[in-house]
Amino acid sequence: MTHEPPVPPDNQSPYPIAEPPHVHHAPPPAPQPEEEQSGPPRMLLVGGAVAAGVAAIGGLTAFLLRRGKSRPKAAAKAKRKR
Q1: Which pTM was predicted?
Q2: What gap in Å lies between CA 57 and CA 3, rounded to an integer?
Q3: Closest of 27, 46, 28 to residue 37, by C-alpha
Q4: Radius of gyration, alpha carbons of the chain
Q5: How far are the Cα atoms of 14, 22, 27 from residue 19, in angstroms, in the given order?
Q6: pLDDT for 1-52, tens place per residue?
């Protein structure tokens, strides 16, 4: 619709059309920045995790490469002499 039909004064909506004014409170105080843990203990943990990941990938690669070579190939059965 391009226009609103006229509304009689006795037939107004019981709900407010516009938001009533309200009081703004002061913003909460900013949280205190905590010191980040970036010393040697954290570096040791990161280095240990990287080393464990590299060792796991290397072990899996070696396992998969050996797995294919360790199976004996099916050769024709030789006849036994009795």
Answers
A1: 0.37
A2: 71
A3: 46
A4: 39
A5: 13, 9, 21
A6: 568 878 787 887 778 778 888 888 888 888 887 766 566 788 889 999 999 9
d(CA 2, CA 22): 32
> Is 74 strand, coil or helix?
coil
Tokens of 11: 């037939």
Tell me which residue has tokens 């072990």.
59
Give the C-alpha distances (Å, rounded to integers) separating 15 from 6, 32, 42, 58. Answer: 18, 43, 58, 70
Q: Residue 70 belongs to what H/E stretch?
A: helix 40-70
CA–centroid distance for 70 within its chain: 40
Q: Among all chains, which residue has been given the structure tokens 């407010």? A: 16
Tokens at residue 46, please?
A: 């990161």
CA dist., res. 28 & res. 32, Å (int):
12
